[in-house]
What does this fold into?
Amino acid sequence: VQLVESGGGLVQPGGSLTLSCAASGFTFSTYAMNWYRQAPGKERELVAHISSSGGSAYYVDSVKGRFTISRDNARDTVYLQMNSLKPEDTAVYYCNMRNMRNYWGQGTQVTVSS
It folds into this structure.
């Protein structure tokens, strides 16, 4: 299993970013996928979850209405569209899949600052 995130960077408050996670080594279309984040000094938290078909999604309250998780099963890729970014969204964002154990990508840094 390999998960490779991309798309992080520095953005001003109110700005937008789209993260991508390219998956390989498993049958992507049969697994739910997750985005987590970890801010300095804080525990890693689940940000968004999407079902294997993409038909249902979950968001942590702090990002509802601002973030959208989606997936392209033809491209084995999951996305996180982040709008109206706030300084408190600053964190390393990780792609995650669970199959008997957790699989993680290397993470991508998102910094929201003026």
Observations:
- The first strand starts at residue 2 and ends at 6.
- The chain has no helices and eleven strands.
